[in-house]
Amino acid sequence: MNRPIRLVAVFALLLTLILMINLTIIQGFRQDEYANNALNQRGFLEMKSIPRGQISAGGVVLASSTADEEGFYNRSYPSDNPTAFAPVVGYLSDQFGAAGLESSYNSILNGTDDSLFGTRWMDTITGQESTGANLELTLDPTVQKVAQQQLSDNGYEGAVVALQPSTGEVLAMASSPSFDPNSIVDPTTANDAWAEINSDPGNPLTNHASQETLPPGSIFKIITTAAGLENGYSSSSQLTGASSITLPNTNTTLTNYGNQQCAGSTEVSLETAFANSCNTAFVQMGIDVGADSLSSAADAFGVGETYDLGVPMSAGSLGDIPDDAALGQTSIGQRDVTMSALQAAVMAGTVANDGLRMEPYLVDRITGSNLDELRSTDPNEVTQAISSDIAEELTQLMLASESNTTGGSGTGYASKTGTAEHGDESSAPHTWYVAFAPSEDADVAVAVVVKNGGGYGTSATGGQVASPIGRAVIQAALAAQEGS
């Protein structure tokens, strides 16, 4: 064989080898990535060729499919308030792909998931048309609508999450601003709707409840208090009530709200400091218990952790704590601390559940076309974040906090408000509220965040803006539980 022929043969072998390696990588290691890519049009044609499973919650159909004249199935979102559910359910669009549960549970909904092999095999044997499986969600439609309306009717940007502390079932996950998925799915309105939604500075396509993390402010004092109680503090422990405190080895001072003494005293109990959310007391206690204890408490409550709910989720973070000055700021939920509304609800739910943190979940059951259950989600215990005794002490502190917030009107809820600074001094704070109903027959915890003061400016507080929303959602959840 002469040299030119050998070179051509070697070159051909190299091309063949490269092709085989490429095919191996694509088919063996990246098949799911390409097959499940939201822009894969072949996948969409396959999805549209069989009846796609429904998504429902509490008997209300949130997503369904109907066949057109060409035999392709088109998606619609028929509930009376599709914008309330859109950040969770998502959308399935020929032009713009898929999002939310429509995307993450695509193989279940279109019937191609490996777990549905037996069902597909039986369909083949019996000659029946293959269909997708259905998702039944944990959301309570009434509670979800109340949460969404509380945000949207007030023109707020933010999020609400309500869950059952004993199981982790998510009862509501509202996000504002939201969008109407039908406008994205309908070819006659899709382009204009897509352009309008993506030009909205409020980012309607973001699930603000799970995907957006923000500084939590004073609701983080629940975690700081847990660390203190773990390290010898009690409700009666004495702390500074001074109007300001200088961070160690700096000239930086942190002040209480309005630069006032805590409850008018230079020294106060932890109970008084918690009820009045006095920054100086928590800076002192946080520095005293140390960064390791605070970090351990934050980890136990799930700060920095994500869950597989089927919707995008950001982890949040405690941030770095290089010194005591940073520790003091972190102790009041500022500096680099970030949490999502979902993580805040889990935090409150953990206290409500005797210190046991449950994994939150959105999908309750998966059923076949005949509505027979194919599988269900069992509650999952993540960790005993705090002892039941500490959970009870925190509950009493949160009851006192609620009483202080409401002026002693006595809602019976255990709560903590938060007002989180961000940006410069001219920026309105993010306002927070976390709460639960501690009676034996109640099983609901809620977290609310309203961004940028909800229009109330730099003087906005969690008690003023976020707490009325949280109470309305708790009331709706308790009414739903009583009626079930």
From TrEMBL:
<protein>
    <submittedName>
        <fullName>Penicillin-binding protein</fullName>
    </submittedName>
</protein>
<dbReference type="InterPro" id="IPR001460">
    <property type="entry name" value="PCN-bd_Tpept"/>
</dbReference>
<feature type="domain" description="Penicillin-binding protein transpeptidase">
    <location>
        <begin position="158"/>
        <end position="474"/>
    </location>
</feature>
<dbReference type="GO" id="GO:0008658">
    <property type="term" value="F:penicillin binding"/>
</dbReference>
<feature type="compositionally biased region" description="Polar residues">
    <location>
        <begin position="200"/>
        <end position="213"/>
    </location>
</feature>
<dbReference type="Pfam" id="PF21922">
    <property type="entry name" value="PBP_dimer_2"/>
</dbReference>
<dbReference type="GO" id="GO:0071972">
    <property type="term" value="F:peptidoglycan L,D-transpeptidase activity"/>
</dbReference>
<dbReference type="GO" id="GO:0071555">
    <property type="term" value="P:cell wall organization"/>
</dbReference>
<dbReference type="InterPro" id="IPR054120">
    <property type="entry name" value="PBPA_dimer"/>
</dbReference>
<feature type="region of interest" description="Disordered">
    <location>
        <begin position="402"/>
        <end position="426"/>
    </location>
</feature>
<feature type="compositionally biased region" description="Low complexity">
    <location>
        <begin position="402"/>
        <end position="418"/>
    </location>
</feature>
<dbReference type="InterPro" id="IPR050515">
    <property type="entry name" value="Beta-lactam/transpept"/>
</dbReference>
<dbReference type="GO" id="GO:0005886">
    <property type="term" value="C:plasma membrane"/>
</dbReference>
<dbReference type="InterPro" id="IPR012338">
    <property type="entry name" value="Beta-lactam/transpept-like"/>
</dbReference>
<dbReference type="Pfam" id="PF00905">
    <property type="entry name" value="Transpeptidase"/>
</dbReference>
<feature type="region of interest" description="Disordered">
    <location>
        <begin position="193"/>
        <end position="213"/>
    </location>
</feature>
<feature type="domain" description="Penicillin binding protein A dimerisation">
    <location>
        <begin position="52"/>
        <end position="134"/>
    </location>
</feature>
